[in-house]
Model the fold of this input.
Amino acid sequence: MELKLSKDVIRIVEDCGFSINIEKQNIDNKLFNGWYCANLSQPTPEGEDWWMNVIFDGTDSNFIKEIRELAYYFDVDEEVEKWIPYRGEGGCPSSILAL
Done:
């Protein structure tokens, strides 16, 4: 598959404060081999490095679909829960609200 993600979509991602790096997947998995991985990252208000990977087929429509699904299924409780044991250590905020 050819990367067809438009410059407009990339600009929107960057205008939302994210850095984006896209790499073609060369993995031993017939389902996703040849697809693309977009690594989206940005610092949080607490100074942490936050990132997520979006696996997509290289098209605008599939990238947008995958972003919508990630947003729809994002679970704040699940995200925070894994950091609770590290509260106040190594730069991890001590406040649950900040997490």
The two ends are 38 Å apart (CA to CA). DSSP finds three helices and three strands in the chain. Strands lie at 19-24, 36-43, 49-56. The mean pLDDT is 88.
